[in-house]
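Team,

Forwarding the record for the chain on the shared tracking sheet. I've put the sequence and predicted structure together so nobody has to dig through attachments.
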Amino acid sequence: MECLGQRIIDFGEKVSGANVVKVAGNFMITASMEMMAEAYTLAEKNGLDRAQVADFFGTTLFSAPIFQNYGKLIANKQFQPVGFKTKLGFKDARLTLKIAQASLTPMPTAMLVHNRLQAAVAKGWGESDWVEGVSRGVSEDAGV
């Protein structure tokens, strides 16, 4: 395992802990993508260059790889090549809600991204990158 990853972190004896960490991470990514898509669409609807806004945030307040990398894809509406399919993001969103329900953990943002990904799959974007599944839905909702 040490050869394959950056480091090994032990989350305890229960194997299910690793599953929770995986779906929690993917939830954080999709929630971040939703937030960026909404912000950049708001900028676009108000006459700003969404790529310039993404660059600003990616180099100031949100200077982390997820905001720089996904932010650039979302801002530029760059959906190719497919890295992680929307249908797989939707599967993880369903798992997130299942775990949340079983542990009585309210997750309203998880419900929002679940619905966004479900709509994307329903529209036939299941094989598309999850950036498209989230970002395109936000743009279409806003009429851009």
